[in-house]
Design brief:
alpha/beta; six-stranded mixed β-sheet; three-stranded antiparallel β-sheet; 8 helices; 24% strand
Length: 256
């Protein structure tokens, strides 16, 4: 994590509450260009709230959020941000569309009466499908795919706008171990080879800590922010309320 890289997302003393109860409390946190940041914490710890604040879906009750040096409410260059949600239950019924059509929606920029006659398989769409490893599925209906394949399609949809920042909220939920490994490899490749900054919320500490170069531990307040290898078992135990052990393997197959 290099301090010389430009900040792309800042939380300055940010708090937000639902019906009188604080979901996040006085969080100060900076993400820089090129980071692969994992946000981890127990259920109900405020991780998703933090993402909603970053994307301007919520406004902090205290403090300030800056996305590419602007408050999210004033930010207009949303093509720079790709968002990948969890795969929604019932996607088969709600989206009777092909993979290419789903990804093409990622380039939607307002009402266009000519859109019905436009090609779906544009070079941009095919490049995004290729990057996500699902180009061979372009003519398949989204409901015919496995959950892991569906999630990679949603990654492709986020990539079609050529974002600088990819935000993912529990993207591996409902995916089997093999599918999760494919998704993790994809995210690491996008970050390493294409320079896309990645912000991922996950309950799988081991998986994201093997990928991330910086980790933010949230349990309403910020309990740790730094490199994965600096996070101690004691700090993880305080975060989750019980002993936690995570083995991290580096290039020399050492563990800590």
């Amino acid at each position: 994590m290099s301090a010389t890289k430009a900040p792309i997302l800042r939380f300055e003393s940010v708090s937000y509450g639902y019906v009188g109860a604080l979901a996040v409390d006085d969080i100060t946190l900076t993400m820089r260009a090129g980071d692969f940041m994992a946000v981890v914490g127990p259920n109900g710890s405020g991780k998703t709230t933090l993402i909603k604040l970053a994307l301007g879906l919520l406004k902090p009750s205290d403090g300030r959020v800056e996305l590419f040096h602007q408050e999210p409410a004033d930010f207009t260059d949303w093509h720079r941000v790709g968002y990948v949600p969890q795969v929604a239950a019932g996607i088969q019924e709600r989206f009777p569309a092909t993979v290419a059509e789903i990804v093409a929606h990622g380039r939607y920029s307002g009402f266009n009466p000519l859109r019905f006659w436009q090609r779906t398989k544009t070079p941009e769409v095919m490049a995004a499908l290729e990057a996500a490893g699902v180009a061979h599925l372009s003519d398949k209906r989204i409901g015919e795919l496995s959950v892991g394949q569906q999630q990679r399609v949603l990654v492709a949809r986020a990539l079609v706008g050529e974002p600088d920042l990819l935000v993912l909220d529990e993207p591996a939920a409902g995916i089997d171990a093999a599918g999760e490994e494919v998704l993790n490899d994809l995210l690491q490749r996008l970050n390493r080879d294409q320079g896309i900054s990645v912000l991922i919320v996950s309950h799988d500490i081991g998986a994201v800590m093997r990928q991330a170069n910086t980790v933010a531990c949230i349990n309403r307040s910020l309990m740790f922010h730094g490199e994965p290898h600096d996070l101690t078992q004691s700090e993880l135990g305080k975060l989750y309320g019980f002993p936690v052990e995570v083995l991290l393997h580096d290039a020399l197959h050492e563990h800590r």
